[in-house]
Amino acid sequence: MKKNIETITKLRTGDEVVVITGKDIGKKGTLKKISKFNNKAVVNGINMVKKHTKPNPQLGVTGGIVEQEAAIALSNIAIWNPKKKKADRISFQVENDKKVRVFTSDKSEIKS
Q: What PANTHER family does this protein map onto (predicted)?
């Protein structure tokens, strides 16, 4: 039996991420949605798949082949560090009684 255990992710929606493995390696995009229960995320412009849709005249939807983003595993993406121009990891620091996300390589704060 599979348990739904919420995993802790340091990434947040709106973060700029880069794909570190898979068919879209090296591509950058912003996080659109994160599913913590199955460790997947949807990124703008990454992991594009073609979906065949039926027409629905009541809703005004035309049928055909639609290209959309599919979920990608969280282990296959990393946050993009614009100063270093490469993928990085996230750590936390406490400043003035506030927990702040910082890049691990240069300890600069992540603007999100």
A: MITOCHONDRIAL RIBOSOMAL PROTEIN L24 (PTHR12903)
Is residue 93 within 8 A of residue 56, CB to CB? The reply is no
CA distances from 98 to 31, 42, 85 (A): 24, 29, 27
pTM of the full structure:
0.81
* HSE of 50, CA atoms in CB hemisphere, 13 A: 4
Go through the chain and tell me how many residues it has: 112
What gap in Å lies between CA 16 and CA 14, rounded to an integer? 6
Q: What does the buried/exposed string (b/e) look like for 21-38 if buried means 16 or more CB atoms within 10 Å of the residue's CB?
A: eeebeeebbebeebeeee
What digits encode the pLDDT tens for the residues 15-38?
999 999 999 999 999 999 999 889
Domain count along the chain: 1
> Is position 59 within any domain?
yes
CATH at residue 52:
2.30.30.30
Domain interval for residue 64: 16-84
